[in-house]
Amino acid sequence: MTVRSIAGPVIRVQGLEKAYGKLEVLRGVDFEVARGTIFALLGSNGAGKTTTVRILATLLKADAGTATVHGFDVAEQPADVRESISLTGQFAAVDEILSGRENLVLVARLRHLKEPGAIADDLLTRFSLTDAGLRKVSTYSGGMRRRLDIAMSLIGAPSVIFLDEPTAGLDPEARIEVWHAVRELAEYGTTVLLTTQYLDEAEQLADRIAILHQGRIIVNGTLTELKQLFPPAKVEYVEKQPTLEEIFLAVIGGDRSEATSTATGGQG
Predict the structure, then answer these.
(1) Tell me, what CATH number does 57's domain have?
(2) pLDDT band (50, 70, 90) for residue 230
(3) What count of other Cβ atoms lies within 10 Å of the Cβ of residue 169?
(4) For 141-243, where are the alpha helices, taking DSSP H only?
(5) In this predicted structure, what is the pLDDT of residue 27?
(6) Residue 236 predicted with pLDDT over 80
(7) Residue 255 structural domain
(8) Which of the residues 47, 50, 103, 143 could staple to 177 if both were Cys, CB 3.0 to 4.6 A apart?
(9) Residue 6 lies inside a defined structural domain of this protein
(10) How many domains does the chain have?
(11) Which residues pair with 161 in a beta bridge?
(12) Contact between 81 and 58 (Cβ < 8 Å)
């Protein structure tokens, strides 16, 4: 891959279009993602989120428009794009027969990296999986599998990671585990493009949120900017009731460390 340093957005999408026969999935999509940020592409099922990610990851060709990732054109320089990115799909791509550590070592060896064992141990620590590292993945909970999947995607230090519906099908406890893992990615300087249909997920994680609806971006901004689109809230004094999430966490034990240790007991 040609080494280059770019100023400005790490991901730039302009006028992206894609149709399957008469079905127009993307109808002129535009957005930019700044380096080291979490960008959420929010939309309902069928809005075009996965199609957008597949185009950016060079797995699908657009009908019109342009897109660059880390300065490389996805249509004209696909090999360079692929060396800059990692993609985690909607289902965890882990080998259940192997242990968590063996999964990580295997990927590191396939990438011809030095000291694959040290790489695996570092990622197990980062994603709070050290205690479960020698266990078969078949014994992992959904949240643990997803965290391992994300850890595997970081081998080789990609500058950009695409997370397509990373918490789809997970229970509330597992979703929170994954949220912590995604926040860590940005803290380490990785640029994250996250697709989701969960409003609270975008609100919790994203530096910027773009809402994709019927093939177009209809709004794009920070959470603060999006809130300003609505009239000022009325101030009312009401008794605060706990949210269902607060009730759930209180019942199962409260903090994340307890939740994680509970999760290591299996899928439950």
Answers:
(1) 3.40.50.300
(2) confident
(3) 12
(4) 142-153, 172-187, 199-205, 223-227
(5) 95
(6) no
(7) 11-263
(8) 143
(9) no
(10) 1
(11) 86, 192
(12) yes
